[in-house]
Design goal:
single chain, mainly alpha, 80 residues, Phage r1t holin, Holin_r1t
């Protein structure tokens, strides 16, 4: 589970931050789009709910990425 955890010395923190940030942005966009699509018109979309939900989804994405990202390779894996 914690194979590529950011707290491991063998994992590049810079690479992890880039990959986790990109993943969080994608999650935020998906969340916002799903909430915007629920509104039948642009005028009926509750923008506060859409943006706050997207931000919460981004924070949760970053927190779950701490356990490890499959996109990030550790130096232990590189030497095998």
């Amino acid at each position: 589970m914690f194979k590529n955890c950011v707290f491991k010395v063998s994992v590049s923190t810079c690479e992890w931050a880039k990959k986790a940030g990109f993943r969080a942005i994608k999650t935020m966009a998906q969340t916002a789009l799903s909430l915007i699509a629920v509104g039948s018109t642009i005028a009926t979309v509750d923008w506060k709910v859409a943006f706050s939900s997207a931000i919460v989804a981004g924070v949760i994405s970053l927190l779950t990425s701490i356990a490890g990202l499959p996109e990030v390779k550790s130096s232990e894996e590189s030497t095998k």
